[in-house]
Amino acid sequence: MATIHVDGKEYEVDGSDNLLHACLSLGLNIPYFCWHPALGSVGACRQCAVKQFKDADDTRGRLVMSCLTSATTGTYISITDPEAVAFRASVDEFLMANHPHDCPVCEEGGHCHLQDMTVMTGHSLRRYHFTKRTHLNQDLGPFINHEMNRCIACYRCDRFYREYAGGTDFGVFGAHDNVYFGRPTPGTLENEFSGNLTEVCPTGVFTDKTHSERYVRKWDMQYAPSVCMHCSLGCNVSPGERYGEIRRIENRYNGTINHYFLCDRGRFGYGYTNRKDRPRVAFIAQDGKLAQASTEDARARLGGLLRGAKHVVGIGSPRASLESNFALRELVGAENFFDGHSDAEHVLVAQAIAILRDGPVASTTLKALESGDAALVLGEDVMQTAPRAALSLRQAARGLGQKLLAQQKLQHWQAGALENLAQDHYNPIFVTATHATRLDPIATETCRAAVEDQARLGLAVAHFIDPAAPAVAGLDAATEARAQRIAECLLAAERPLVVSGTGAGSAEILQAAANVAWALHARGKTVGFFLAFPEANSFGLGLMDARPLGEALDALANGAAEVAIVVENDLFRRAPTARVEAALDKARLVVVDHQDTPTTRHAEVLLPAATVFEGDGTVVNNEGRAQRYFQVFDTAYYHPDIATTESWRWLRRLLSDVRGDGHDASTFDEVSSACAAVLPQFTAITKAAPQAKFRILGLKAARTPHRYSGRTAMRANLSVHEPRASQDADSPLAFSMEGFNGTGTDNTPADQRPGALVSYAWAPGWNSPQAWNKFQDEVGGHLRGGDPGVHLFTANTQASTTYFTHIPAAFVVDNTTPRVVALPQIFGSELLSSRAEPVASRITEAYVAMNGTLAATLSLAEHDSVAVTIAGSVLSLPVRISDALPDGIIGVPDGAPGIPRIATGAQATLKVGAAA
Amino acid sequence: MSTADPVKLKDLPKVAPFVLHPDDRAAIVHEKTLYDYPRAAVIEALKIVQARHGWVCDAAVTAIADVLGVTAADVDGVATFYNLIFRQPVGRHVIKICDSIGCFLTGYEALRAAFEKHLGIRYGGTTPDNRFTLLPVVCLGACDRGPVIMIDDDTHFNVGPDGIVALLERYA
Q1: How many beta carbons lie within 10 A of that of residue A863, not counting itself?
Q2: A613 φ, ψ (degrees, to nearest 5)
Q3: pLDDT, tens digit, 9 for 90 and up, residues A75-128
């Protein structure tokens, strides 16, 4: 700790920080542009100048850049010194000289860091009235708008995109007052984290193109604390709604998970909720077609159906909340509740959960990954299956720069020095996969092999680390040597990481990863262990110990069960088409979902479910953290005819109809508490967020900013009489600007807002996402009200290390019937985001990838068409030659149009026929 | 103060597809060996290409990036940073008139006007016969003998408006 003096007052700060960081952490306001909590200091913009004095008696002082000055004990500074104030105002005026006066038509307006800083510095009158420099803009693809005229040349975009995120198709061109930030040629920004440019850019150069379509100001949207549903990591998001449509997703700060950044799948994948073809009322099958029906009719039909049926099965879903899955389990009975994963994923999820829950090493967090200093990524293509984790792994790799800074006795925030020192050097990362991955460019070594061989390598690494772990017989010398290299490297690290997951479709990979993590643990290492799961609530559903889906399909096909209730699931993504059809042809099917899928078309009754934005729920992320997501808006307020509501509420209504107890209106807390009471593994979920009765200073928390406008008129098309605002019995949030909207003042007072209840980033004077500074215990740290979410179990440190002993046999290459591997895709593999138009436009065309040797044997060249037989269906696919694929393996992009969905990583044999 | 005529992209001359000359490739590969990081060789690579072709086209940027194993953005970032790496075609001879303070005091404005009138082009322009391109340049370090200009690699001192016709005749 250090004591610094700011404008005559004494403060305790962390002496290793710079003054800007320290002062912002204290809640003091210093304007800045080029600094960013996650990017460090470069001192380029000169906006954060303060006056520094030699000692308490010095009255002259000198201007220093607070971002480049250490907050050491005995520092005397003044933020309010007239010379410093005037200097900052003049810097802002210089930056504004070329900035257009287009705030009224600029999409950044209202959440613009440049606006905030211009107000903060007091520069209110433009004296420059000459021609401003202008630029041509580029088409940067479906996600990002480009308006270079607004640029103030802070370089944050370049530092984020190239250094932080590893993008290669972006740069800075030109010199002096004529610099240009963009791609070498117009085209889609290829980096998976490009969307963060919209928040990293302090002004409107990079804005959200998906939002442009139906634009609305930040202050005119309604928000709720939400969780991304597009992979298992559970990044926190802040969705904005207007007129019953989700208009934009912004990052919601969670200091243990995603902190400042999201991936593009999570940011731009929300469009599925606005689709016109969603079921929004109940449907009942008539003459082989689904026809709209009233809720009453649907319930009457279902009451009869369920009361009359001898045997009803319920099929849950990893994309539905815990409450929805639990309500289904309650309705059909535990013995009739089935897992919504494919059977292959059912096994993998159970294996992954057992490893994390029962083993000696629990999961580390996404944020903690960043502090690892060596990593083994075993089998999981994280950039495609859990993209945000790949960004964290990149920071672990870049962590070498911090060591180099420390050697030079430089502070950790010296970002310019860090880049100069680190250049292309990274902490060691070893990547194994069946194919080339986007982490390969920063990998120390890559191993491309079949899953068995990757598992064997992993098991051998574990044995080298701890000889008590089983040895692998029959490895070739090169693999032995590689295993030893990896083992030595992980042992030499202070904080080694082991990253794997279900994405490779192999339990043996998971077991091998567990052995490595446990071996490091046995050797006394603090190991960061991280497993990616298939979907947003795979962990939660897996914890329910449901029976595998195949048993339900069999029971339906053979007539043992007659009614199936499927909740938020498309069974055709979970099992082969013929098998699903055989089951659904016999069954009377009830579907509760918010998307029109091949499964809903078989339904006798279809109930319209709420999306994550339209309802409340709890999901469990890949580390076993239960997180609450809150309803963003009330659909019925804008469209009284719409019947969508959470699946759990539909199922509770059906339960009441079946029981005839008249208990029709369950609240979220009732269902959540019942889940926690019935299933002890979920005891903690009621603490994931405050319950509905919670108040701050007697108030609910507001969902909309206090400047929210137009509420009295937004329903005038229905009635000029404005109804009472929607009431929310399920949460401590209000569908209104009336409610608590503060940031809290310090760590314990009554006006502290729990982190789980912060809907959007705003603080007085801070309208941009930089307002998160005002909610954190220290800038870039944790939320003062606590990072949202609660772990369902703690590390089982008492567990003895019982290594997995099964050693898989080596893969046998058979090029006549090569194995097919589904290559996971950030855009396409996940159902909901792929139904959002901008994401759909990024989905790859179908192809079949193979290495040059195999292509040569078949006399195939790049782009040749080939007939591929996968699981009985014949596809004509163009060939892509990728020598990263090992012999005997071909790849098809998971989720590409026309590719039958085999569960990610599941494998089959196939025959490559003659060219079609 | 007038500003340079922007070259409209559609007016760029049609040129044969760029091919990196084998000698240039070898020279760039050699430069790469002289530095710890290939990015450091970008500036030399650009000079090698410009020496042969007179300017650096988009395809050359990509070719240099491929040879050095760096991104095209890195190469173009360097290429556009330096005002004497030409990213647009220039004439056979490039006239650079110093517009810094010393030459301003000794008659730069009249000299510039004379060049523009004689050649019929403004800054950034190239004569229709592709013989001359006219550009401003910063101080050439001969303020005692201003106005100073450079034509290609030759520096000329005390250049007055009257002498430019004879001077230009020396450059075919």
Answers
A1: 10
A2: -80, -15
A3: 999 999 999 999 999 999 999 999 999 999 999 999 999 999 999 999 988 899
Task: Determine the distance in angstroms separating the CA of B33 from the nearest CA of chain A, rounded to an integer.
Answer: 16
User: Are the beta carbons of A678 and A337 closer than 8 angstroms?
Assistant: no
Return all residues near A273 (Cβ < 8 A) that are at least 6 apart: A246, A594, A611, A612, A613, A614
Look up the ipTM and state it: 0.89
Q: Identify the pLDDT of residue A760.
A: 95
A468 DSSP β-pair partners: none
CB contact under 8 A, B36 and A169: no
Show the tokens assigned to B135: 């550009």
Whether A508 and A451 have beta carbons less than 8 Å apart is answered as yes
Query: A403 exposed, middle or buried (CB, 10 Å; 0-12, 13-18, 19+)?
Result: middle
User: What confidence score (pLDDT) does residue B1 get?
Assistant: 35
What stretches of A238-360 show up as alpha helix (H) in DSSP? 264-268, 295-308, 322-332, 343-358
Alpha helices per DSSP H over A762-903: 831-834, 837-840, 852-857
The 8-class DSSP code of residue A160 comes to I
A148 touches chain B (CB under 8 A): no
Low-confidence ranges of chain A (pLDDT < 50): 903-905, 914-916
**Contacts with A180 from chain B: Cβ below 8 Å:** 80
A44–chain B Cβ distance below 8 A for any pair: no
- Give B12's pLDDT tier (boundaries 50, 70, 90): low
Q: How far is CA A580 from the centre of its chain?
A: 31
CB contact under 8 A, B76 and A184: yes
Distance of CA A520 to the CA centre of its chain: 28
Q: What is the DSSP string of A172-241?
A: EEEETTEEEEE-SSSS---STTGGGHHHHSSSTTEEEHHHHTT---GGG-EE--EE--SSTT--EEEEEE
A748 touches chain B (CB under 8 A): no
Which chain A residues are Cβ-neighbours of B61 within 8 angstroms?
184
Side-chain half-sphere of A434: how many Cα atoms within 13 Å? 28
Q: Which domains does chain B have, with CATH numbers?
A: 16-81 (1.10.10), 93-169 (3.40.30.10)
| Residue whose C-alpha is closest to residue A630's, from A737, A760, A750 | A760
